[in-house]
Amino acid sequence: MARVYNFSAGPAVLPEPVLQQASEEMLDWHGCGMSVMEMSHRGPEFIAIHAEAERDLRELLSIPGNYKVLFLQGGAAAQFAMIPLNLLRGKTSADYVSTGQWSKKAIADAKKYCKVNVAASSEDKNFSYIPDQARWQLDPDAAYVHITSNETIGGLEFQWTPDTGAVPLVDDASSHILSRPIDVSRYGLIYAGAQKNIGPAGLTIVIVRDDLLGHAATTTPSVFDYRVQADNDSMYNTPPTYAIYIAGLVFKWLKDLGGISKMEQTNIAKANLLYDYFDQTEFYRSPVAKEDRSRMNIPFTLRSDELDAAFLKGAEQNGLTQLKGHRSVGGMRASIYNAMPVEGVRALLQYMREFESKHG
Ligand code: PMP
Questions:
Q1: Ligand 1 in reach of 335 Cβ (< 6 A)
Q2: Does any ligand 1 atom lie closer than 6 A to the CB of residue 84?
Q3: For the chain, does the N or the C end have fewer beta carbons within 10 angstroms?
Q4: How many CB atoms lie within 10 A of CB 255?
Q5: pTM (global) more than 0.85
Q6: CA atoms lying within 13 Å on the CB side of residue 224
């Protein structure tokens, strides 16, 4: 068996020990004679798996007691609609900060439900930076303020938490959740699709403050009502059971590594390997303002576009896959989530140096 170094933006690399354990438990989970995939979500085995996953996530992120954790379906994109449906609370507008393609998608869906005030945008410079909060035009009557704290395509990451006063801060943390500690109490709601740092696609995690539940618009489908899902322990409908099980194994893996502060140190070291190199060479370029560079998604371009195909072909031959940038921006992108070992980043760096010395 040969595993590659997979730099996909998602679905993405998972920790090898997690995949190994899942394969050992595939046919018979803990002596119960069936796979987790075959279990009733109402049975004692799955209820235990679900409860332990939630406990471990709460511990990893130090989630305060007045927040609910929901394990939902529909991807992060379903949240683009669920957020206005649930959080407008009788108000008519919401503030959005536009920092890239995912913010834009969230804004487009929110516009179907309310007036959207784009409080700040970096579209003027091709989404290459995060606007300073001093320049945001926040509306004190907004129902909430929405940010995308890591833009997966553009490779921008908030290195700070905005202060939105009494207006709840809502964050799409899909592509960097669990990569660094966060102070959950600063947010009204945090959401994330699982397929980057949590587990398989099909699971979406929502962490929401209690007082924001119970205000859904009357037209909200029941499965999309946070209050209904919270009252039913995320089992109003059948949850994505196998994805929750794998997420639980990923949480254990993170705890065994020493938790999120430890993970953050590794992530800083991994990202610096690449960014330090970009800063020394003219051959590769990072399009993102230095202070806003993502530790998870690292886009870069070569000195000339003609070299892209040769770069990607050579990378594949070296077992370095999925490095092509998103179709909307081109170039390359290395996604180096929690589960990407530092050896993978070193192998990429070595390949990049060799490629430069041949073509530079
Ligand atoms: N937000 C961000 C930041 C993302 O990276 C993605 C997916 N790459 C989404 C939302 C949409 O997630 P999904 O496809 O799970 O709905």
A1: no
A2: no
A3: N
A4: 14
A5: yes
A6: 20
